[in-house]
Amino acid sequence: MYYPDTHEDLLTFCTVTGFPTLDPQMVRLQQPDASVLLRDNIGAMMARCSLWWRATPPHHIERVGVIGHYAVRDAEAATALLTFACEYLAEQGCTLAIGPMDGTTWQRYRLVTEQGSEPPFFLEPDTPLEWVNHFAAVGFNEIACYTSALNPDLATTTRQVRGWRVMDRLARHGINLRAITADMLASDECYRLMLQRIYAVALQSFQRNPFFTPISLDAFVAQYLPLRPYLHPGLIWTAEHMGRVIGFCFALPDVLQAQRGRPIDTVIIKTVAVLPEYEGQGIGVLLTDLCQQTAIGLGYQRAIHALMHESNSSQNISTRTGSTIRRYALFGKAL
């Protein structure tokens, strides 16, 4: 067991050569109950993970233990690490181990189970396919499944006439939709105010997702604040009723395209959320359509609907115009 108490210890855990680099500040915020570094007989680091069991998400009658910050050199190290992790979580009273998840579903979680030909996009978990075999080899099974879908031609698939009809109907009921402006993204303080307005919607909309745990407003702001440099006015839309936000669509450009030397022609629909009492009125669909219409005007040609749970209503929106490009899963094992 490894407890990175000092800053140097934490840096060692986060910056193992050949493993995905972790942000030490983010690891502290995620507050793992313990961390594990597996070394071979000459001291070389072979595997890494963190464990949570004290404040984990509920799942029926199970007491959940979480495995995150996962990285390994090879299958042998994976078996040793995951076997130890499961045994240790069982000793803490856990009856179900899930992973990989960096503490909660607000953080990085899931494994890629089907890769497809589309390259990784911004904010997507990009894990080796062999990691699926690592978890399966010690008795883990898929416990929640997710997809990402690509709309390859926004100009010919985004609806306009029906959208305006829905907007008129909503307006008659006092529900108005508007795009986030440049002023709202001009500074961290302005952006923080916008995040405060959508926080309640995110919290209530996500609470039906598997393994959901609530987070504080401060934690929510800390999660989204680093995205501000990548955001573009018009790609975030809100629905408002009687002065409060009741739904939002949060999208941003796929900046990884530029890192590959290509023009950025794709937007990522990261989150579509509507308060439960306003569902069934077409608000989520309309917010998505308005976001995509704006994207066309800004020169974008494609949209990725990212990381949708297979039973989520957001997937219904994407299947009308998109095709699946990637599949992911969260894994679980009875202890």
Summarize the structure.
This protein has helices at 7-14, 24-30, 75-91, 130-137, 154-157, 161-172, 188-206, 217-224, 256-259, 283-297, 313-319; strands spanning 34-39, 45-52, 64-72, 96-99, 111-114, 141-151, 175-179, 236-241, 244-253, 266-274, 302-309, 323-334. By secondary structure, it is an alpha+beta fold.
Tell me what the structure shows:
The chain is 33% helix and 27% strand. The protein has two domains: 139 residues, Aminopeptidase, CATH 3.40.630; 178 residues, Gcn5-related N-acetyltransferase (GNAT) (Aminopeptidase). Helix 3 packs across helix 4 and helix 6 crosses helix 10. The longest helix has 19 residues. It is built from eleven helices and twelve strands. The two termini are 19 Å apart. Strands 1, 2, 3, 4, 5, 6, 7, 8, 9, 10, 11 and 12 form a twelve-stranded mixed sheet that branches. A hairpin with a 5-residue loop joins strand 1 and strand 2. The protein is α+β, with helices and mostly antiparallel strands. It is globular, with a radius of gyration of 21 Å.
